[in-house]
Amino acid sequence: MKVSYNWLKEYLDLDVAPRELSEKIARTSVDINDVYSLGDGLKKIVVGEVTSCEPHPNSDHLNVCQVNVGEDKPLQIVCGAPNVAAGEKVIVALNGARIADNQKIKRGKIRGVESNGMLCALQEIGFSDKIAPKESSAGLYLLPDDAQPGESAISYLGLDDTIIDTDVTPNRGDMLSIYGNVNDIAAFYDLKPHFKELAVKENDDQSAADLVTASIKDQKIAPTYKLRVIKNVKVADSPLWLQIRLWNSGIRPINNVVDVTNYVLLKYGQPLHSYDYDRLPGHDFGVRHAEEGEKFVTLDDNEQTLKAQDILVTADDQPVALAGTMGGQGTAVEDDTKTVALEAAIFDPVMVRKQARRLDLHSESSMRFERGINPSTVETALNEAAELIAELAGGTVAKGIVTGSEKPAKDKDINLSLSKVNHVLGTDLKMADVTDVFDRLNFAYQVQSEDGIVVTAPARRWDIELSADLYEEIARIYGYDKLPATLPVMTRNRGGLTARQKFIRASRHDFEGMGLNQALSYSLTTVEKAKQFQISPVDEPMKLDFPMSSDHVATRMSIVSGLLIDVAYNIAHNVNNVALYEEGRVFIPKGGERPEEQEHIAGAVTGQLLANNWHVADHPVDFFQVKGMVEQYLKNMGLADQVTYVADQSRAEMHPGRTANIMLGDQLVGFVGQVHPKTAQAYKIPETYVFELNIESLLSAKKIGNEYTPVSKFPTITRDIALLVDTSVTNADVVALIKQRGGAFLKDVHLFDVYSGNHLPAGKKSLAYTLTYQDDHDTLKEDQVNAAFDKVTKYLTSQLGAEVR
């Protein structure tokens, strides 16, 4: 909220500078976004009176004006504004003045005629289009007749006021009003506020109940709903003091009726809405839920399609406003309005928030309804607004208030223990110190004993519900800086990681050691991407009821799609070698209210893993490199069950000939392979290889304990063997048989050559292996190695039909 320092000073005897006050507010109440003045940087800008206005001799749209600025002689200024005329009071930037954007005004000639300054529109002295009155948008802002030539326009327009822009948290909705700010500032400076309320004078003979009625069937959506009627109004521009209040608070002045409702909103935090009585479809007001698909045209001239959870204000059951959000186009107060129906209400904050967010119609009113309304000032605000409209628009206030619903303002009694206060805050406060805080806050209380006190939190502080809330009030008013600084008390238990944490940390360490960089992607994605790259397919992901955007509507069931988005980002920025991994949670729907959260780890690699140099040529990453990473990782994790890789064609987004499921025993724990070229094209990435593993399955699997084995000091002996086998025989088949029959001294089996093609029979291929033998305790003898090697040869020939070449 933009809080006017001058407005605060009307109700408080402040003797602190605005910036000092803002620092105190930030330390004690709410955060501060900015402290500024609309007049910052402006210089030599005064009130002027146009004494004559003649057409420019060399232009068909310029005028030569003589302007009285309080000096001996009028200034001659050339002006092109369409509304400049003799007798008007205007804003004048003198020679040497500084206006918006630090632009300097200089004396000069415009089409041969001397000009000694500039006549200014509000935008030219720093007003944004959002707060400048609409009628001044096409020309000069015309000042009231009481403006004195030569007087500083900066002061006259209230631009010398300092604005404290507060960032109000959701629980402190009371700070979205001058009333709330005055009470809070008075408390921490120990001041007595002299807040002024304007009493209403009902000066019309007719009763409001004869003009309007109100019946609220569902009081949950509108706990409080009140109406007043003001007759015989004359809609016009607001007086300057009211316009200043509004534009200094960031609100555009409209007319005297609408401006009063905005003024009261700022003063009390109570949104009001004014209807043109004669344009209403009826005069029986109500509040109801919208019909599904019901149409309604709002004040911004947009047709809204409503849902059943939206709430409407109606007249004879015809919608006239989106409750708490925005009024309707057909019933707005216009220049010819004669009678005003004035509404003050409290609407359900959750419904208002959902409605405003879905329709993107956030406003000053909806912001306050969402955070809560002070029930004790609803009628006060309604009465003051009615009286101000009567004063400024010359109307008469009909007798009485029409009430459709009313939720009484209830104070809350909270028991407080002095010893508990001191224990929580770490202080040594006396009961007098605590009661002094509540006196400053203007909270009623009763001291029950030396340790007990019952505090009555007023309805205007609806955020206070528990004793813990009062602890906070005591701390902030007493002063956070006065609280003793102590180190936290803690046990001296030795810290450490759990087995799960160690496993996850080791997983990250392994893949980082293999050259992959850690990435973090969103847990929310589109429904289409959420279905892709699943280890165990699930039909539909968990969807959000109120997503932030169309790209974040469902929870992910795989990490790979997020990594591919990261790969695409790097490729788009000319980073062609990308190797990423991510460890995080996926969310698998299991039919319950919440999805099952699983820890997964995934990787995506494209380009080259190793940089080429003078003796190593370019070698793009392939399936076997990525599969090798997964193999090494699973080996490092010490899994007891056998890991196998089974060709898979079930995933449409993966290449059908270069994808394998990863099996741990009989359990599917992940997959590895190439992204399908069509999927890669959709993600705008080149050839990319990915993998994903379910860490939950790996965590629960049997492990092999780590044992230290000293490096043998005895030499190794190697034997090479080349086999001619059927093309259906895999390397895994050969290696498994060699290890099974290789004997106790076999240490390693290495495939060093594969050949198929010319000079080999059809359906055959050649595989060449090096077998390494070593005894850990003695030097191997030739006979021992030969016997073991012959045994391997025998079984390869008999069981696999291999032919030794």
UniProtKB/TrEMBL annotation:
Keyword list, A-Z: Aminoacyl-tRNA synthetase, ATP-binding, Cytoplasm, Ligase, Magnesium, Metal-binding, Nucleotide-binding, Protein biosynthesis, RNA-binding, tRNA-binding
Cofactors (names): Mg(2+)
Keyword Magnesium: yes
Domain FDX-ACB: 712-805
Segments crossing the lipid bilayer: none
Keyword Ribosomal protein listed: no
InterPro entries: aa-tRNA-synth_II/BPL/LPL, B3/B4_tRNA-bd, DNA-bd_dom_put_sf, Fdx_antiC-bd, Fdx_antiC-bd_sf, NA-bd_OB-fold, Phe-tRNA-ligase_IIc_bsu, Phe-tRNA-ligase_IIc_bsu_bact
EC numbers: 6.1.1.20
Location in or out of the cell: Cytoplasm
Positions bound to Mg(2+): D463, D469, E472, E473
One annotated GO molecular function: phenylalanine-tRNA ligase activity
Reactions catalysed: tRNA(Phe) + L-phenylalanine + ATP = L-phenylalanyl-tRNA(Phe) + AMP + diphosphate + H(+)
Free-text comment on the cofactor: Binds 2 magnesium ions per tetramer.
Segments forming domain TRNA-binding: 39-154
Cellular component, GO annotation: phenylalanine-tRNA ligase complex
Listed GO biological process terms: phenylalanyl-tRNA aminoacylation
Domain B5: 409-485
NCBIfam families: pheT_bact (TIGR00472), YtpR (NF045760)
Subunit structure: Tetramer of two alpha and two beta subunits.
The name this protein goes by in its record: Phenylalanine--tRNA ligase beta subunit
Organism: Limosilactobacillus frumenti DSM 13145
